[in-house]
Write a structure and sequence with these properties.
427 residues; alpha/beta; Spo0b-associated Gtp-binding Protein, Chain: A; Rossmann fold; GMP Synthetase, Chain A, domain 3; 3 domains; six-stranded mixed sheet; 9 helices; 18 strands; elongated; GTPase Obg; EC 3.6.5.-; magnesium ion binding; GTP binding; P-loop_NTPase
C-alpha cells in the first residue's frame, strides 16, 4: 500500500560528561585540573530528498537515535561530538507531535532541512571549576540529557490542482493524456491506491502540477475506506477538478456524486470548499452529439454558483484544451504562496516544562535566573543567532519566567543574567 503516514520514535544524542583529572608530570608536584569537556550529542535532522515520494522507509522501523557525545579526557582533551542523525523524507512531509497532534515542522516550500531535536550540550571538565579557594575541583559537569519523543509523519502531496472523483470515472486516463505521468489504467471498480502527479505544459500559459487524488467514497471524512488516507492530499491544492462519468456507463448520478464528494471535503475541512472548482464531464466519446441530459443537468446545478462544466473525452482528447486553460486562469487568480503549515510545538518545551527555576536580584541590580530547565535550554539553543535568541525568548514567555520577573519589578533596560549569558530586558 502507498505509505503516506508513519509513527516513529526519535531520540537526540546525550551530551558527553566533563572529565575530572589532574596534571601528573615529573617535576610538577601539584598539577592543576586538566579534565576536558564532553562532546555535544548528535541532533535529529529531517531533510527533503527529491528522490522520495513515500514514507515507506519508516513503515518497518520504529526507533531512530542520534549518537551521544563522548566523555572528555585528561590533558584537556575534548570528547568527540556525536554524529547527527539525518532522516530523509519526501517533500510535503508534515512532522507532528504524536501526543498532542501539533505540527513540529512542515518539510515544504523553502524548508528543506530542519533540526527537530537538538543533542545535549557537552559537560564542562573540572578545569573550568578551579578558583582561588578551590584549586583542585573534583567535580565536572554532566552532559546534557537527550530528548526522546514520538512523532507522526504525514505526507501531504504538493500539487497545484487536485483531480477528484469516484472510482472508475477516468482520472488516471486524463492524467496520462495531459501530463508525463504514467499511472496504471484499467476498468477497476476499486480505487487507485496512491496519488499520481504529473506536469501540464500549456502553450502561452503557465504550466502546473496536477495530482490524481485516489477515488473517494461517501463516509471518507469519517475514515470509511481509505478516505482519510487521501483527503489530506487535497489540502495543499489550489484548484479542484471534479471528474464525473457523463455517459452514465456506471449507472451513477454525476450531480449526486459531486454533491457527495463536496460533503466529504466540507466534513474534513470546510476551507476546502473555498477553493475554485471546475467539472470535467468525461466519456463524451460514448455520447452521441456534444451534450446530453447529464451535461445539461450539471450546468443547471453548478454553473449558477460559478463552477464551469466542461464536456471532455480523456480518451480522444476532446475538450481538454478548454478545460486546462480554464484551470490555468483560475490558478493565476490564486495566491502564489505555497500552503505550508506553521510550527505549533517545540519538543524541547515539553522536556523542560516541570523543572523549577529561581529569580534573584544580584548586588549590581541584575536579575539572575537559574534552574535546570534554564541551563538545559541554553545548552540546546544557539544564542548567537537571531532565530535562536527569539526561540529562547518564546521559551521564557511560555514558561512564565518573563511574567515572574515583571512581578519582581524588572524594568526596561535592566540586566538579565543566566549561566554566563547577559542581556538587557525590554518588554
Amino acid at each position: 500500500m502507498f505509505a503516506d503516514r508513519a509513527t516513529i520514535i526519535i531520540k537526540s544524542g546525550k551530551g558527553g560528561d566533563g572529565h575530572v583529572s589532574f596534571r601528573r608530570e615529573k617535576y610538577v608536584p601539584d598539577g592543576g585540573p586538566d579534565g576536558g569537556d564532553g562532546g555535544k550529542g548528535g541532533d535529529v535532522i529531517f531533510v527533503v530528498d527529491e528522490g522520495l515520494n513515500t514514507l515507506t522507509d519508516y513503515r518497518h522501523r520504529r526507533k531512530f537515535a542520534a549518537q551521544p557525545g563522548e566523555e572528555g579526557g585528561k590533558r584537556n582533551c575534548h570528547g568527540k561530538n556525536g554524529e547527527d542523525l539525518i532522516l530523509k523524507v519526501p517533500e510535503g512531509t508534515v512532522i507532528k507531535d504524536a501526543e498532542s497532534g501539533k505540527v513540529i515542522a512542515d518539510m515544504s516550500g523553502e524548508n528543506r532541512r530542519q533540526v527537530i531535536l537538538r543533542g545535549g550540550r557537552g559537560g564542562l571538565g573540572n578545569q573550568h571549576y578551579a578558583t582561588s579557594t578551590m584549586q583542585a575541583p573534583k567535580y565536572a559537569q554532566p552532559g546534557g540529557d537527550s530528548i526522546e519523543i514520538e512523532v507522526k509523519l504525514e505526507l501531504k502531496v504538493i500539487a497545484d490542482v487536485g483531480l477528484v472523483g469516484f472510482p472508475n470515472v477516468g482520472k488516471s486516463t486524463l492524467l496520462s493524456r495531459v501530463t508525463n505521468a504514467q499511472p496504471k489504467i484499467a476498468n477497476y471498480h476499486f480505487t487507485t491506491l496512491q496519488p499520481n502527479l504529473g506536469v501540464v505544459d500549456l502553450d502561452g500559459a503557465k504550466g502546473f502540477v496536477i495530482a490524481d487524488i485516489p477515488g473517494l467514497i461517501e463516509g471518507a471524512s469519517e475514515g470509511v475506506g481509505l478516505g482519510l488516507e487521501f483527503l489530506r492530499h487535497i489540502e495543499r491544492t489550489k484548484v479542484m477538478i471534479h471528474m464525473v462519468d457523463a455517459a452514465g456507463t456506471e449507472g451513477r448520478d454525476p450531480v449526486a456524486d459531486i454533491i457527495a464528494i463536496n460533503k466529504e471535503l466540507e466534513a474534513y475541512d470546510p476551507a476546502l470548499l473555498k477553493k475554485p472548482q471546475v467539472i470535467a464531464a468525461n466519456k463524451m466519446d460514448a455520447v452521441y452529439g456534444d451534450e446530453n441530459e447529464i451535461i445539461q443537468k450539471l450546468k443547471d446545478t453548478f454553473e449558477k454558483d460559478g463552477i464551469r462544466v466542461f464536456p471532455i473525452s480523456a480518451v480522444s482528447g476532446k475538450g481538454l484544451k478548454e478545460l486546462l486553460y480554464c484551470v490555468s486562469e483560475l490558478l493565476d487568480q490564486c495566491s502564489k504562496e505555497p500552503v505550508v503549515y506553521e510550527p505549533e510545538f517545540d519538543p524541547a518545551l515539553r522536556f523542560f516544562k516541570d523543572e523549577p527555576y529561581t529569580i534573584t536580584v544580584a548586588d549590581d541590580g541584575a536579575f539572575v535566573v537559574e534552574g535546570p530547565k534554564i541551563e538545559k535550554m541554553l545548552g540546546y539553543t544557539n544564542m548567537d543567532s537571531e532565530k535562536g535568541f527569539l526561540f529562547f525568548q518564546k521559551f521564557m514567555k511560555e514558561q512564565g519566567i518573563l511574567k515572574d520577573m515583571e512581578a519582581q519589578g524588572i524594568e526596561d533596560g535592566d540586566t538579565v543574567r543566566m549561566y554566563g549569558f547577559e542581556f538587557d530586558y525590554y518588554k
